[in-house]
Amino acid sequence: MFDKITSLFQSGSAVPDLIAVLNLEEWYLDLSDKERQKVHQYSTAFGTGGEVNLLEQSVSDTSQTAQEYLKGVGSTAASENDYEFAEQVLQTALKFEDGSATSTHFTYTELIDVYYKQRDEWDDAIEKCIKYCKKDIEIADEFVAEFGDVPRIPSFKRLAIIYEKQDQYEEALNVCDQALEIGTTDGTKGGFEGRKERIRKKMD
Hints:
It is a single chain. The chain is mostly helical. It folds into 3 domains: 1-37, no CATH class; 65-149, no CATH class; 153-204, no CATH class. Helices cover 66% and strands 4% of the residues. It is built from 12 helices and 2 strands. It has a two-stranded antiparallel sheet. The longest helix is centred in the middle third of the chain and has 17 residues, at 101-117. The radius of gyration is 20 Å and the shape is elongated.
C-alpha cells in the first residue's frame, strides 16, 4: 500500500478527486510530500469489497463534508499512533466547520482522545484536553438536538476525571451536574451520581 501511495507522488499525480470536491486543494497543496503521503495512507474506509482508499476513487460529488473527511483521516492517524499528524489534521478539521454540531462533536472527541493519550508525552496535552472537553460540553445541547437521542458524551467523564485527579473537586462535581442535566451517562454502573458520591467522600 505504501509503495503504491509513494508512486502517486513520483508520477506527479494531480490533486485527488475527493480533495477537489471537498474544496481542500489549497490545504492539500500546502502540505509537504511526506504529509500528503500520510493523508493518502490514512484515507481508508471499508466498503462492500473490503478496505478502499478514498483518494484513489473517481469522485464527482459526495455527501461527506470536509470536516467529516478530515476527522476520519485524523482518527485513522491516531489509531496508528501517529498522534502529531492526527492533531494537525483534526485541528484543520475544526477550521472547516460544516454547520453540524454532530461533526464538530466527533472531531472534538477524537482530539480530546489524542491529547489525553499524550498527557505524559506533551507538556500542554492536559491543558488542551481540558480546553476541548469544555468546548464539546458547550455544544452538547445542540449536538443532542441534532442527534435525536442522548448518547454517551465522553468529554463529561474525561473532564470530571481530570479535575478529580487535580483535586479540583468542586469543578469535577459541576461537570457531573452538567452531565446529569443533559441526561448522558459515563458508562459505569453508578453513573454520574455514583461519581459524585465518590468525589464527595474525597472532600470529607
